[in-house]
Input
Amino acid sequence: MPTDVAEPLLVERFPIRGGDYEHGGEAATRIKAIMRQLGVDPEIMRRLSIANFEAEMNLVMYADEGCMEFQVHADAVRVVVADRGPGIPDIELAMQEGWSTATPEMRARGFGAGLGLPNMKRSSDEFEISSTVGAGTTVRYAVYLA
Amino acid sequence: MTPTAKGHFIEPANCIACMACTRACPTRAIRVRDGHARIRYELCIDCGACVRACQYGAARAATTPPSHLDRFEYTVAVPSMTLYAQFGRDVVPSRILHALTQVGFDSAYDISWTCEMLAGATDAYVNEGRGPWPKISVTCPAVVRLVQVRYPGLIPNLLPIETPREVAGRLLRRRLSAELGLAPGAIGIFFITPCTAIMDSILSPVGLQQSYFDGALSIAEIYGPLLRALEVAPPADTLVDEISPRGLLWAMAGGETAGMRNSNTMTVKGPDVQYVFDRLEAGTFQSVDFIEAYICPDGCISGGLTVERRCAAQRNVQHIAKGLGASPAVGEERIRRLLREDFFATEEEFKARPVQPLGRDLREAVARQKELEALLPQLPGKNCAACGAPDCATLAEDVVRGEASLADCVFLKIERLEGDLRAQEGRVS
Output
């Protein structure tokens, strides 16, 4: 993934609190509303929303706090989700289908099927994850507009 | 594309610009301009929330006037299951059907069996049909419009199976035309509707080229005449009740899925619909196969054109259904065969009707989005609606679209006047 991506046309930031299940999903919903206003194609909207929702709920479930940054570029919609939290010790393992550390409480709410990260990767055109144990995790992904 | 004929409208002469409808509208489709409310039909989902909220007779249902019946040689009433729940728990459906023949219709036709058949067809489709899942019921026309306008990503999730009322309308017209020796156009088929949304679906159908109904009369309007007709005892032979209890349950939320074998269903109603659709578009609820959704808070019995309170209506439905006993199942094999023959299939594809973007292209839309965000902090955030838009964010959006001005905000107006006043006082002293 190129790191020197051109200056975005639009940047929107949404702070997210860990453990805030009550508002979990609102950032993803807000981003979808913005994409609708911008006239983004429904299929692209759908793909980014899937990744956004997963990312947001991962943050709510595992991290202390973080931020979802939505960027509109001429050729893609990009999202950077950075959190302060426990980090992921083995990313390769976490990227495997079905792998989950969800608690029974999370599962009771319909999460933790182990679809999260692989699902995000599947629905985006670019996907990158980096994590430092004890510090936090950053996920970047993009869906191309054309 | 804005439909020309609508099942509800605003009568400007009656509107006092109180903003009740503007606030009640779930898609923020109403603005007050030039002293009265105006519906932006491109955003409207026909839910009738404005009609319900209006206390001045300005937001009104435009159901078919009864005089329209005179245009046909033969007329049939097809009541919504909800009509059966309007007259207490002891008035059985057959009496109501008979009463309909006393208030201007040549006959009345029960569609509870069609409802039961369609529940079976839905069940079969969920087992045999193509994804994406879950499928969303198309029974509530306002839900279908909501998907078209707000959730274009869910268009492929709409169940491509026609509603019981339209299937019944189609069969009825064909049968009556043959039986009576009349041209299909000489027969007037009218739905007795609990809501404006169905009236709208008859005027501008989705998934169908043209409705099989010639109009719809509101339950509220026909209630009085029916009540009087019910005082007269019907002939003894009409008292036999052949109503499907499973079909009858379609009157209330949960009824459509009540008889389904598939248990991976979910009933969603009222404000929950948008919550669930937002999450559906984000890929959750993967384990659900079928969603029964209603814009009204309790399904059709809570429709805006009903008379009986929904708690009482629900009690009536349950009591009447219990009295009908166990329903003999409509032959499952036959339903599966009809399903494979596309007997229940919608005639046309569902199409999205997405909201107009902020700009003509991405760059212009982004520029306007930025303008919009810069405007928001200037507005009071009290969402008083006095400007004519339902809330501050919508006013900001109207401003960047060039359809309103910041000067419409009464708080900003007061601030400016106070500023002028202070400046004046400063000069005087």
About this structure: The first helix of chain B runs from residue 20 to 24. Chain B has a mean pLDDT of 92.
